[in-house]
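Lecture notes, unit on binding sites. The following record was shown on slide 14. It pairs a sequence with (2R)-2,3-dihydroxypropanoic acid.
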Amino acid sequence: MSKPKVFVTRRWPDAVEARLQHLFDPIFNDSDRPLGEMDLLQAMSHADALLPTVTDRMGASAFPVEQPRVKIIANYGVGFSHIDIASARNRGLVVTNTPDVLSECTADLALTLMLMVARRAGEGERELRNGGWTGWRPTHLVGQKLSGKILGIVGFGRIGRETARRARFGFGMTILVHNRSKVDAAVLAEFGARQVDDLDELVGQSDFVSLHCPGGEANRNLIDAKRLDRMKPTAYLINTARGEVVDEDALADALNTAKIAGAGLDVFDGEPDVRACLLDCPNAVLLPHLGSATRETREAMGYRVIDNLVAYFAGDEPGDRVV
Ligand code: DGY
C-alpha cells in the first residue's frame, strides 16, 4: 500500500523529518521560505495531509473551491488562528494542533520577558554592546523586582498555568487569573490564585499582565488603549500569545508616555514585520517568536504532529483534533 503524501510547509528538526520520511511520502519545502496562498492551494490538491505552521496564513482564499485531496491539516504548533477554521470545517477537513509539549518552554519565555523588561536587561545589553557603558553606579539602569509582585494571567490554559507555577514558586508572586470559563477551585488553590472575572479589574490590579489566551478575531485588541490606561504606571505587559491580542499602536503610545513601565513581546501583529513605533521604544523587549524554540520542544511538536497523522491514517481519532 502506498504511503500517504504529506506536504510539510517549513523545515523541521532533522530527527523529525527522518521519521516523517520513514512513515509517509513527504514533500518538503527545501527553501524554508513561507509559502504563498497559491502554493498552499496547490499543496492541498497534491497531498493527503498539509502540515503548516503559524507562518502559513490560511485564510478562506487559501482553501480550494472544490473538495481538496488533502483530508487533514496537521498544524505544527498549538495556536491555530492562522487557519480559517470555518473553511476547513465546510470542506470536512480534520484539523489538529500540538498542545502540552510547548507549555513549559513558552512559560519560560514569558518569565524571560518579565525579567528582561523589569531588570532592563535589553537596555543594558544594547548599551554595553554600543560602547555606552561608563561603569557601575547606584542609579544605573535601575529596574523592578519580580518577587512578591502581582501577576495577572489572561487565559489560564496549560501555558498560563505553567507561567503561574514559575511565578508563584520561583518568585513568590501573587497570581490573579482571568479566564473565559470558571477555573476549578482546586487548580486555583494549587497556585494560591484568585479568578477575576472583570478583565479591567485584573489589568488595574496587576504589576505584570501576561497574555496566554488564543489569538484570532475574537481576541483582537483585547488589550486596547482603555485597558492600557487602567494599568499601573509601574506595570509591565507581556505577550507570548498572539500579536493581534494587543493594539500595538496604543501600546507604543502607552510606553512612550509612561502610562505603563514596559512591555515584553514575543509575538507581533503581522509578524515578521514589527511596527516602527515599537522598535523605537527603549522600554520594550522584543523577541522573534521564540516561545517554543528549544530543541526538545521543537522535536516534541513534530512527533506530536506525527502521532496525529498516524492515528488519522489508521482510521482512529487523532489525539489533538480541534476540528
Ligand atoms: C504555537 O505553537 O502556537 C507557537 O506560537 C509557535 O510555536
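Take-home: The pocket of (2R)-2,3-dihydroxypropanoic acid is lined by residues 54, 77-79, 102, 291-292 (CB under 6 Å).
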